[in-house]
Amino acid sequence: MPNEKPIISLGSRYLWRSRWYNLRQDRVRLPDGSDGTYTVVEHPGAVWIVPITTNGQVVLIYQYRYAVDDWCWEVPAGGMLPGVAPEEMARRELLEEVGGEAEQLRFVARFYTMNGIGSEVAQVYLATGVRLGTPQREAMEIMEVRLFPPKEALEMARRGEINDGPSALALLLCAEFLLD
């Protein structure tokens, strides 16, 4: 496997910045020697949490997503904040979105969510012994909480009913722990 970097950055400028992500445009030199432009969504990363209640149910949320104008089945998730460890962000998002507190939080995997256009890294956690309480959602978070048997949640992911890709992958990455 090649280890060299075939595309070289010649310079960058920001087209737009926000507290959630930035849009950066790079001038690049391509492997054939020509110059080009590459636009990158800079994202601080995010956590996805697969919650299992104390009685063994998977917690999913059914959330309206404005960007796609659709309702999506998802697991709780949220963006990273500067200076906050991923495990702490996972605990915060679990509490915020479903009012959940976990007895145990286990790191499962990490992956890129949009490696063709952006830098977001997903970190997946399995939360076990989850007790649900009152969510502390933001105004844009329009969602319902639903509980499913693990086999049903995994089948939803396999059938494409969980239409948020990182949520489906998070569930599938946790499959061995869900079916114990």
List the helices and strands and how they pair.
Layout lengths: L7 E10 L4 E8 L5 E8 L3 E8 L4 E8 L4 E5 L2 E3 L6 H13 L1 E2 L2 E9 L8 E12 L10 E6 L1 H10 L5 H9 L1 H4 L2
Parallel strand pairs: 4-10
Antiparallel strand pairs: 1-2, 2-3, 4-7, 5-6, 5-11, 8-10, 9-10
Helix count equals 4
Order of helices and strands: EEEEEEEHEEEEHHH
* Main beta sheet strand tally, sense and closure: 5 strands, mixed
The radius of gyration computed from the alpha-carbon positions, rounded to a whole number of angstroms, is 18 Å
- Determine and state the CATH class of the largest domain: Alpha Beta
Tell me the name of the CATH homologous superfamily of the largest domain. Nucleoside Triphosphate Pyrophosphohydrolase
How much of the sequence lies in strands comes to 35-45%
What does this entry look like structurally?
By secondary structure, the protein is an alpha+beta fold. It has 2 domains: about 35 residues, no CATH class; about 130 residues, Nucleoside Triphosphate Pyrophosphohydrolase (Alpha-Beta Complex), CATH 3.90.79. It contains 4 helices and 11 strands. α2 packs across α3. The two termini are about 35 Å apart. The model has no long low-confidence stretch (mean pLDDT about 95).
